[in-house]
Design goal:
single chain, alpha+beta, Peroxisomal Thiolase, Chain A, domain 1, Alpha-Beta Plaits, Malonyl-Coenzyme A Acyl Carrier Protein, domain 2, 3 domains, 3-stranded antiparallel sheet, two-stranded antiparallel sheet, 36% helix, Polyketide synthase, transferase, PKS_assoc
């Protein structure tokens, strides 16, 4: 008996059965017990593997675990939804300008971080994928009080910006700030009047994250509107209509908030 691991083993077994669409036979059972009336009800003992076909609802199963103390735990498992296909393969590789975020406890520490990133990552023999570096900087490192962002569209621009930051110089695309530890931003969605023809079209073309979330918003709106979200972004006349501009602004702001979130900016609140 697997003792305390019995329940976990049962869960793993059933998850694998759901994944492969096959109910495995019960081991070491040749003949069903005569002490059970198998004709009553719909319970069967699996003496052979049995296919578990797809139907119009997720597969579900119960897993029971009886402890030696008499404790009985019963868990209901449900098949996980299929992963949503992303738009990455259909979108261009370019992500436009990316933000390399760095921080330090003080100004010398910030400069040292810039010098280290330039020396160890960007100035190496194999050019890195800039968007991957940017993502790692905001998701795997603590944000300290002295902060800076280097905006760059390619590795050469990134190296120039980091060089300026490391030496205390200034250049376009390098922004410094001394922030408060623990503070988080509040995002405000704008109201009608902030739109313009062509808004968000560059981000749709440049950012897979933004484009995917816009696609999800378009699908959600599609049931209720007769216009196409992506088409009205460049339609000045359509954006003058209240029934168009307000849902369109909502979709742009939701997608922009997701883009900020992916870049490591988690708001304390969203209002508007």
């Amino acid at each position: 008996h697997t003792q305390s691991a019995a329940g976990v083993a049962g869960v793993i077994k059933m998850v694998m059965a759901m994944r492969h669409g096959m109910l495995p036979r019960t081991l070491h059972v040749d003949t069903p017990s005569s002490h059970v009336d198998w004709s009553a009800g719909a319970v069967q003992l699996l003496t052979e593997n049995q296919p578990w076909p797809e139907v119009d609802h997720p597969r579900r199963a119960g897993v029971s675990s009886f402890g030696i103390s008499g404790t009985n735990v019963h868990v209901i498992l449900e098949q996980a939804p299929e992963p949503v296909e992303t738009l990455d393969a259909q979108l261009p590789d370019s992500t436009g300008v990316v933000a390399l975020a760095l921080s330090g406890h003080d100004e010398p520490g910030l400069r040292a971080q810039a010098a280290a990133l330039l020396r160890e990552v960007l100035a190496g023999q194999q050019a890195p994928v800039l968007r991957d570096v940017a993502w790692s900087l905001v998701t795997t490192r603590s944000m300290l009080s002295h902060r800076a962002v280097v905006l760059a569209s390619d590795v050469d621009e990134a190296c120039a910006g980091l060089e300026a930051l490391a030496t205390g110089g200034g250049m376009a695309g390098v922004v410094r700030h001394e922030g408060r530890l623990g503070s988080r931003p509040v995002m405000v969605f704008p109201g009608q009047g902030s739109q313009w023809a062509g808004m968000a079209t560059e981000l749709v073309a440049a950012s897979p994250v933004f484009a995917q979330r816009m696609g999800e918003c378009a699908a959600a709106l599609g049931e209720f509107v007769e216009w196409d979200l992506f088409a009205v972004l460049s339609d000045e006349a359509a954006l003058e209509r209240v029934d168009v501009v307000q849902p369109a602004l909502w979709a742009v702001m939701v997608s922009l908030a997701e883009l900020w979130r992916v870049h490591g900016v988690e708001p304390a609140a969203v209002v508007g």
